[in-house]
């Protein structure tokens, strides 16, 4: 009996590493595609689809998740790998400014909550008064139609299934660098977009 009691109280307070493994298993057994890096449970990628009936519907993002040592007592850190236009996501780093993941996180939540609730809520209900992307926030408040158009343009340009790239398709690191330099020369790629746009039937 003694052993049983010890066992059950232990189950209630699972150690952070046990809990991390459990939450990872739950996430991997769910419908989300999870890519671990060298079986490391502290950093991994999850494929995330924009919520239905939102401006982001149809978009696919690769989300980088980092679990702190003290997870679940400390919140995971979450960032978009491919670009997204949103007031609460930093455009260059993809870092997410999300209260529930930062201040109000509780060990009651697990990783599936992040992808089933927190991120969809964030995309459906942006908070322009606490922005990470000031330009997106002011555009949302100033001209909603222009904001919506820009969100959709970003989805089209950066959030197609091929944009989250399967790791094996990347032949060498050099390719990556070229892509980065192209995206930094924003003006060039914008011109190309316009030309491509006119060519479409």
UniProtKB/TrEMBL annotation:
Active site: 97 (glycyl thioester intermediate)
Protein name: E2 ubiquitin-conjugating enzyme
Record-level GO BP terms: ubiquitin-dependent protein catabolic process
EC number(s) per entry: 2.3.2.23
Domain annotation UBC core: ranges: 15-160
UniProtKB keywords: ATP-binding, Nucleotide-binding, Transferase, Ubl conjugation pathway
Biased composition regions of type Acidic residues, renumbered to the chain: 170-181
PANTHER family named in the record: UBIQUITIN-CONJUGATING ENZYME E2 (PTHR24068)
Family from the record: Belongs to the ubiquitin-conjugating enzyme family.
Region (Disordered): 162-201
GO molecular function: ATP binding; ubiquitin conjugating enzyme activity
Family matches, as InterPro entries: UBC (IPR000608), UBQ-conjugating_AS (IPR023313), UBQ-conjugating_enzyme/RWD (IPR016135)
Chain ranges passing through the membrane: none
Known role: Accepts the ubiquitin from the E1 complex and catalyzes its covalent attachment to other proteins.
Source domain of life: Eukaryota
The keyword Iron appears for this protein: no
UniProt feature coiled coil, ranges: none
């Amino acid at each position: 009996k003694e052993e049983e009691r010890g066992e059950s109280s232990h189950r209630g307070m699972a150690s952070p590493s046990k809990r991390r493994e459990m939450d990872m298993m739950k996430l991997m057994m769910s419908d989300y595609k999870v890519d671990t890096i060298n079986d490391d449970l502290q950093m991994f990628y999850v494929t995330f689809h924009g919520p239905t009936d939102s401006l982001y519907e149809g978009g696919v993002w690769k989300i980088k998740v980092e679990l702190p040592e003290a997870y679940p007592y400390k919140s995971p850190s979450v960032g978009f790998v491919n670009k997204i236009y949103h007031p609460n996501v930093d455009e260059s780093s993809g870092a997410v400014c999300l209260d529930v993941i930062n201040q109000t996180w509780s060990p009651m939540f697990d990783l599936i909550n992040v992808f089933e609730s927190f991120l969809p809520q964030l995309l459906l209900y942006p908070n322009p008064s606490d922005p990470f992307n000031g330009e997106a926030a002011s555009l949302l408040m100033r001209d909603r139609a222009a904001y919506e158009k820009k969100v959709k343009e970003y989805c089209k340009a950066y959030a197609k299934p091929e944009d989250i790239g399967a790791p094996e398709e990347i032949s060498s690191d050099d390719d990556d660098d070229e892509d980065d330099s192209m995206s930094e020369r924003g003006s060039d790629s914008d011109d190309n977009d316009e030309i491509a746009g006119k060519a479409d039937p």
